[in-house]
TrEMBL record:
<protein>
    <submittedName>
        <fullName>Glycosyltransferase family 4 protein</fullName>
    </submittedName>
</protein>
<dbReference type="Pfam" id="PF00534">
    <property type="entry name" value="Glycos_transf_1"/>
</dbReference>
<feature type="domain" description="Glycosyl transferase family 1">
    <location>
        <begin position="181"/>
        <end position="340"/>
    </location>
</feature>
<keyword id="KW-0808">Transferase</keyword>
<dbReference type="InterPro" id="IPR028098">
    <property type="entry name" value="Glyco_trans_4-like_N"/>
</dbReference>
<dbReference type="Pfam" id="PF13439">
    <property type="entry name" value="Glyco_transf_4"/>
</dbReference>
<feature type="domain" description="Glycosyltransferase subfamily 4-like N-terminal">
    <location>
        <begin position="13"/>
        <end position="171"/>
    </location>
</feature>
<dbReference type="InterPro" id="IPR001296">
    <property type="entry name" value="Glyco_trans_1"/>
</dbReference>
Length: 366
């Protein structure tokens, strides 16, 4: 079976992470031949493709040109030219016509309720409309968590749909506990996420301000790109307002190897996000033996199970209390580290690829 992977939207965050790990695992599945369509400016993101994956570079286009022309005209034409049996779009949307289509539902529409900026609300309204159109036309769809599946169907007033499968992401071997001789730094809080409004870093910063007066060793490092510059500027201003300038470092986007080293160095991962369909950093941290404090919201309880402390969403006081528990109770931290390693073992890119291949075959053979 020949599969064309439409990756023209995979330019940051979880979309790139997913494909970097899923493509090699899919390419190793028997009976699959993979082709990957990207825009030329994405080439550095996919420089280490398996030899079995045929690369097709398309001209770079803006968002509107990508959605209206490249996906609806160029991608279907390419699929027909190479004889693709199915087109797999690891995004909420893809081609409406052409060979059988499979989409991956990984963007959460709940973000709209957090946005007050008109341009962002219009953007998410467009994403909703296009996602619904593609879901109506596709042969099969994949949600990255049971929460994401329920939220999607509820958003559009549906009780269920047999075309929708839940397949969790995996975690790479790169993320592992500290080796002998590697030591964690006392009082180092770590947050890993690009800077978006739904990531809710304000709660974490205010929690840190509550803890700071009695904990001089406490500091926070945030690894993530400024993908929403206005929001990033608000966070920087809040750091100044709270008097945390000497305790908070914005590291910017970091390569996976550096992030993996941060997981092995930190005391705990703080994940205050309000909207999450999966949350790759949660699994990466657990696989690294790093205790986790996260919001009791969206997909996060599903992903961490009993291997993290859950804080009330948006409640900086509760976040501070849960962080303090881990700092003050070494036994609890060690227990969560043990549970996290066990929980992370349930996530595998090979299992993700096997389940995804089954969905692709079902779409092609219908």
């Amino acid at each position: 079976m020949r599969v064309l992977v439409n990756a023209v939207h995979a330019k940051s965050g979880g979309g790139v992470t997913t494909l970097r790990h899923l493509l090699p695992a899919l390419a190793a599945r028997p009976g699959l031949t993979l082709a990957l369509a990207i825009q030329r400016d994405q080439r550095p993101l996919f420089a280490d493709l398996p030899a079995a994956v045929t690369l097709h570079e398309l001209p770079g286009r803006g968002k509107l040109g990508t959605v209206l022309w490249q996906e609806q005209v160029t991608i279907p034409a390419l699929a027909r030219r190479i004889g693709a049996d199915v087109v797999f779009s690891p995004a909420n949307y893809g081609p409406l016509f052409g060979p059988p289509a499979v989409i991956l539902l990984r963007n959460a529409f709940e973000v709209t309720s957090l946005e007050r900026r008109l341009d962002k609300r219009l953007y998410w309204a467009a994403v909703r409309g296009l996602t619904w159109a593609c879901f109506c036309r596709c042969r099969r769809a994949i949600a990255v968590s049971a929460h994401a599946a329920r939220a999607f169907l509820a958003h559009f007033g549906r009780d269920g749909d047999p075309r929708l499968s839940v397949i969790h992401h995996g975690v790479a071997p790169l993320y592992h506990p500290p080796a002998e001789g590697e030591a964690r730094e006392s009082g180092l809080l770590l947050a890993v996420s690009d800077l978006y409004v739904q990531k809710n870093f304000e709660t974490l910063l205010r929690a840190l301000a509550r803890l700071a007066p009695t904990r001089p060793e406490l500091r926070l490092e945030i690894a993530g790109r400024r993908l929403d510059p206005a929001y990033a500027d608000r966070l920087a201003a809040l750091v100044e307002e709270l008097g945390l300038s000497d305790r908070v470092r914005f590291l910017g986007g970091q390569p996976p190897e550096v992030v993996a080293a941060l997981y092995r160095r930190a005391t705990l991962l703080a994940f205050p996000s309000l909207v999450e369909t999966f949350g790759n950093p949660l699994v990466e941290a657990m696989a690294s033996g790093l205790p986790v404090v996260c919001s009791d919201a969206a997909a996060m309880p599903e992903i961490v199970a009993d291997a993290a402390l859950l804080a009330r969403p948006g409640d900086d006081g509760d976040f501070a209390r849960q962080i303090a528990r881990l700092l003050d109770e070494p036994g609890l931290a060690a227990e969560l580290s043990r549970r996290g390693l066990a929980r992370a073992a349930a996530f595998s890119w090979e299992r993700t690829a096997a389940a995804t291949a089954d969905v692709l075959r079902a779409a092609a053979e219908r």
